[in-house]
């Protein structure tokens, strides 16, 4: 029995844990379904992939899958993937900055220009791959070679060399996905106060100095966001590259698919390459966040 206080009245009953913390628990309950979904469909498969990468049908823990992939050319797969990612990001951000800077101004036809600039994002990847295969085919034909022939230049076999094949994929992918970077950077430009440019102009700063000291700092967060999105997508590029160049030169994602198909659904070798791919994406994200957060 509860003891009465000095006034002779019994103490007030202690509220339950739910009543004392319901303001914190109710929002959490709304998030639980999303956490369960992400955990089951993202983190659990990732954990199983890493686990399979260290297994074989016989051994429960081994480096055999990684050693076998190294002997098959894992380092070249990584190199090709990184070169493609670096080239595509450089081209896309260069084009996107130029287009976003133009769209930040007021001029006649701005709406039409902006629509044309972001139109490729709505094109299906398979359509873009087929189109650029017609422009840059592996043979001496194609629309690009038609232009070269009209200029008296010998035809080029665009997919004959690994670096040229990667370049063709970079061009095709940049045409398809630069639109996303443009949209992000245009949104970033809208957050930069015009007064900063006016103050910089009064201080004698020209266009280049304004770009360096006003535009780039103002776009920092948006550039980081675009790098995270596009960088992760570039490292994981598959459909466009597989349709255009197949397995020459080899990319990590294409090799994951080929190893999976070639093994009849046995996941061990493909899981090892997938784990390497996951490691590259993770390192890239950490580097971008760390460098992007510096002042």
Description:
This protein is mainly alpha-helical. It has a domain at 74-124 and 161-292: MetI-like fold, CATH 1.10.3720.10. The chain is built from 12 helices and no strands. The chain has helices at 17-53, 64-72, 74-103, 110-118, 125-135, 143-150, 162-190, 194-202, 207-235, 239-245, 252-262, 268-292. Helix 1 packs across helix 12 and helix 7 (162-190) runs antiparallel to helix 10.
Record keyword descriptors for this entry.
295 residues; mainly alpha; MetI-like fold
The beta-strand count equals 0
Radius of gyration: 27 Å
CATH topology (level 3) name of the domain at 74-124 and 161-292: MetI-like fold
How would you spell out the order of helices and strands? HHHHHHHHHHHH
Overall SS class:
mainly alpha
Low-confidence spans: pLDDT under 50, at least 5 residues? none
- Rough shape? flat
Helix content: over 70%
Largest sheet: none
Strand content: under 5%
Terminal CA distance reads 63 Å
What would you say about this model in short?
The protein is mainly alpha-helical and 295 residues long. Helix content is 73%, strand content 0%.
Topology:
Elements: H1 17-53, H2 64-72, H3 74-103, H4 110-118, H5 125-135, H6 143-150, H7 162-190, H8 194-202, H9 207-235, H10 239-245, H11 252-262, H12 268-292
């Amino acid at each position: 029995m509860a003891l009465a206080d000095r006034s002779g009245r019994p103490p007030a009953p202690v509220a339950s844990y739910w009543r004392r913390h319901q303001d914190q628990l109710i929002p959490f309950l709304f998030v639980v379904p999303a956490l369960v979904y992400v955990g089951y469909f993202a983190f659990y498969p990732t954990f199983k992939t890493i686990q399979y990468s260290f297994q074989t049908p016989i051994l429960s823990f081994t480096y055999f899958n990684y050693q076998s992939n190294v002997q098959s050319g894992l380092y070249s797969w990584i190199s090709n993937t990184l070169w493609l990612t670096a080239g595509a990001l450089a081209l896309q951000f260069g084009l996107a900055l130029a287009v976003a800077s133009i769209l930040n101004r007021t001029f006649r036809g701005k709406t039409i220009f902006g629509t044309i600039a972001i139109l490729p994002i709505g094109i299906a990847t398979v359509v873009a791959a087929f189109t650029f295969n017609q422009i840059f085919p592996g043979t001496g034909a194609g629309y690009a070679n038609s232009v070269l022939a009209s200029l008296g230049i010998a035809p080029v076999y665009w997919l004959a060399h690994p670096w040229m094949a990667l370049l063709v994929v970079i061009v095709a992918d940049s045409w398809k996905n630069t639109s996303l970077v443009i949209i992000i950077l245009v949104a970033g430009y809208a957050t930069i106060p015009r007064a900063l440019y006016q103050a910089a102009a009064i201080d004698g700063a020209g266009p280049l100095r304004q770009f360096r000291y006003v535009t780039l700092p103002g776009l920092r967060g948006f550039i980081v966001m675009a790098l995270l999105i596009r960088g992760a997508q570039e490292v994981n590029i598959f459909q466009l590259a597989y349709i255009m160049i197949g397995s020459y030169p080899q990319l990590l994602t294409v090799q994951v698919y080929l190893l999976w198909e070639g093994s009849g659904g046995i996941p061990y070798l493909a899981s090892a390459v997938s784990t390497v791919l996951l490691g590259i994406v993770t390192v890239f994200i950490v580097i971008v966040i760390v460098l992007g957060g510096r002042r």
